[in-house]
Amino acid sequence: KVLFVRTSILQRKFFMMAEFQQRKTAAEQKVNILKKQLEILKKVAEQKKKEVEQAEVINLLEKNARLQEEISKLKTDLRFYEAQNGVKLVSVPSAENVTKKEALSDSNTLPIKDMPASSKKEKTAEPDSTKIKQVLPTDDNKPIDASRILMKIGKIIDVKKHPDADSLYVEQVDLGESNPRTIVSGLVKHVPIESMQNRVAVFVCNLKPAKMRGILSEGMIMCASTPEKVEIIEVPASAAIGDIVTCEGYPGDADVQLNPKKKIWEQVQPDFRVDENGVPGYKGGQFTIAGKTGRFSSPTMKCCPIK
């Protein structure tokens, strides 16, 4: 009887130990699962943090690009209006030329005591504010290509027929500047006046303003053109008023105002063409707007000049 009791006690202890062992194993498994889940959560948190940081960086880069574009537009507009208001543009010599001139000047300078008395006297006068010249970078060394042409997206907010010319429209064009520009276009025979009103198009904005039958025109609308037909270049849906249009492969800052004596537009214009797919461009480089998608097009005309 005593042996039976002892055996029962030992069996009970054995079962209890086995149960404790099972519980321990289950607890360890749960702990391992929790550790793995914790690691996964850490990785997810790190990934989300990286994604948030990347999104912030992309957002900042986009803001920076927009600000740079706005600054570029403002600079271009400022230069245009300064030129319109008679501020003279003076070419800035390159640093290399300045260095050479300074070296020559230093080598030819005499000590003050050896200089003629007349040269020692310096005239002092107040600067004439009416003769202040705006100093701008020189364009003499820039290539003659599409980068010299300032093209912008504009909207025709008002259009009328020229009072003294049956073939001309007189348009008021919003180019994102402080005031609309007046632009005269010979499109009466090709585009109905209803299609001109509120039309968004590409305009050349740095031609020297010229009178057309007595009205000063401050730019030119870009059109696919043949002797028989003329069609306004259509812009992508993403284009906004004031956007600067460039040609792929031809970067650079456009001239403030093209010098008519140098015939830059006359040399560049023949290479503006619509290709076989109806896409406008310059020497194969398509019209484009920095940071935006979409394609410029000429809906019905192909393989023809742009004027």
UniProtKB/TrEMBL annotation:
InterPro entries the record matches: NA-bd_OB-fold, tRNA-bd_dom, Tyrosine-tRNA_ligase_regulator
GO-annotated biological processes: translation
GO cellular component: cytoplasm
Gene3D superfamilies: Nucleic acid-binding proteins
Coiled-coil annotated spans: 17-84
Alphabetized UniProt keyword annotations: Coiled coil, Cytoplasm, Protein biosynthesis, RNA-binding, tRNA-binding
Record region (Disordered): 100-129
Biased composition (Basic and acidic residues): 119-129
Cell compartment(s), UniProt: Cytoplasm
Residue ranges annotated for the TRNA-binding domain, each copy included: 145-246
GO molecular function: tRNA binding
Taxonomic superkingdom: Eukaryota
Name the record gives this protein: Aminoacyl tRNA synthase complex-interacting multifunctional protein 1
Source organism of this protein record: Hydra vulgaris
Gene: AIMP1
